[in-house]
């Protein structure tokens, strides 16, 4: 019985240390990553509410707008399809909001079929290829940036990151989710 207890304790301790370390790394990576000039800005999708973008999506839109106005890229791609509760595709809602903020409509493109980060980036890559763009700034929340950047690089996108640092969301469960997702992605 003592042997089983000891093994269980060791496994729990190892799992806790691994997840804790990854949690810290996810936070560190997202906060230290800085954007660089690129051909296009890719805004990863987030929920849409009946009256428009959720606070999380609006935070990403605001960062993309700021980067565009600062001259980091000459075009923007918004991404995301229809979710379980989204009345409008995330990419469409984000595009409409960016245009309403005064960004020229002819430089904003929307990918509207994706359901996850990988599909967001695959759809954005298709638009990038159509326009001959090679590099992108991935805009998402800082705690999501590590996984998003890994995925972009797997797809062959020359990617830089820009993460939303201050959010209306409660961070700990979001960072924990991303730590778990990064751990799972390691074994895929």
The number of distinct β-strands equals 7
Task: Kindly identify the CATH topology.
Answer: Rossmann fold
> Can you list the strand order of the major beta sheet?
5-4-1-6-7
Helix and strand run: HEEEHEHEHEHEH
pLDDT averaged residue by residue: 91
For the record, the CATH architecture stands as 3-Layer(aba) Sandwich
Give the DSSP E fraction (strand runs of 2 or more residues).
Answer: 15-25%
Question: Residue share in helices?
Answer: 40-55%
CATH homologous superfamily title: HUPs
Label the structural class.
Answer: alpha/beta
Count of alpha/pi helices: 6
* CATH top level assignment: Alpha Beta
InterPro entries: Cell_Envelope_Assoc, DUF218, Rossmann-like_a/b/a_fold
Domain DUF218: 39-178
Pfam families: DUF218
From the structure above, extract its key features:
Rossmann fold, Cell_Envelope_Assoc, two-stranded antiparallel sheet, alpha/beta, 6 helices, 188 residues, elongated, five-stranded parallel sheet, Rossmann-like_a/b/a_fold, DUF218
Detailed description of the structure:
- This protein is an alpha/beta fold.
- It has one domain: HUPs (Rossmann fold).
- Helix content is 52%, strand content 16%.
- The strands form 2 sheets. It has a 5-stranded parallel β-sheet with strand order 5-4-1-6-7. The chain has a two-stranded antiparallel sheet with strand order 2-3.
- A hairpin with a 2-residue loop joins strand 2 and strand 3 (52-53).
- The longest helix is centred in the N-terminal third of the chain and has 31 residues, at 2-32.
- The radius of gyration is 18 Å and the shape is elongated.
- Pfam families: DUF218 (PF02698).
């Amino acid at each position: 019985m003592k042997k089983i207890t000891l093994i269980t304790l060791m496994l729990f301790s190892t799992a806790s240390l691994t997840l804790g370390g990854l949690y810290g790394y996810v936070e560190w990576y997202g906060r230290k990553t800085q954007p660089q000039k690129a051909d296009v800005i890719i805004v990863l999708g987030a929920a849409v509410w009946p009256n428009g973008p959720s606070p999380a999506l609006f935070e990403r839109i605001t960062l993309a707008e700021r980067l565009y106005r600062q001259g980091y890229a000459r075009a923007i791609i918004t991404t995301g399809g229809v979710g379980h509760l989204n009345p409008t595709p995330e990419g469409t809602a984000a595009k409409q909001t960016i245009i309403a903020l005064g960004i020229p409509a002819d430089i904003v493109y929307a990918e509207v079929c994706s359901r996850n980060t990988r599909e967001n980036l695959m759809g954005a890559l298709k638009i990038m290829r159509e326009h001959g763009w090679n590099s992108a700034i991935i805009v998402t929340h800082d705690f999501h940036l590590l996984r998003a950047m890994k995925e972009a690089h797997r797809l062959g996108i020359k990617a830089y990151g820009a993460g939303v640092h201050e959010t209306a969301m409660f961070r700990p469960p979001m960072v924990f989710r991303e730590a778990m997702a990064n751990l799972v992605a390691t074994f895929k």
